[in-house]
What does this fold into?
Amino acid sequence: MKLNTIVDRGAIKKTKRVGRGIGSGTGKTSGAGHKGQKSRSGVAIKGFEGGQMPLHRRLPKRGFKNPFRTEYSIINLGDIDKAISDKKLDEKKVIKNEDFFKAGLIRKKNNLVKILGNGSLNYTLNLEVDKASKSAIKLIVDNKGNINFKEKNQSNEKNQNTEKKNNNKKEEVKKS
It folds into this structure.
C-alpha cells in the first residue's frame, strides 16, 4: 500500500452520461422531459422559487440611491508616497488630477479627487485637489506640505445663471 493508491470509494462519483441511447435510462430527452422552457438549454430561472414568494421580494426595501450624489476618486497618502518613490509623480511640482491620472492612481482624468490619510508620508507635498480628510490635511501640513482646494466653478456658474434669469423675470414683471 502506497500513499498515492489510497482512495476513498465514495469521494469520486462517476458523472451520469446523458443522451446516450434509450437503454441507458437517460437517453433521448436526457432526463429533461418533453418540450417547455425547462427542457431547453439555459434552464435556471433566476430568483424563481417554484411559485413561492422569492427572497428578493420577501425582504423590505431599504434606503435609496441619490442620483445627484458627487462621487470622488479616493487616493490614500500612502499611494501618493509610493508613486513618488516609483518616480511616477514629481514631489517638487504642484500635483493635480491630471498627474494622478498619468500615475495610474485614478481611472478618469476629470474625476473629483479626495485624499485620505491612510499610509505613511515621507515627502513634502503640494497638492491641488477637490477634497481631503482632516487626517490627510494634518499629515501634509505636519510634513511642511501645502494643500489647495479647487473651487467648484461649474456649480457656481449654474447658480449665477439661474440668479440672472430670475432677476430678468422679476424686472419683466415690474415693467408690466
Observations:
- Helices lie at 55-58, 77-85, 97-103, 134-142, 153-175.
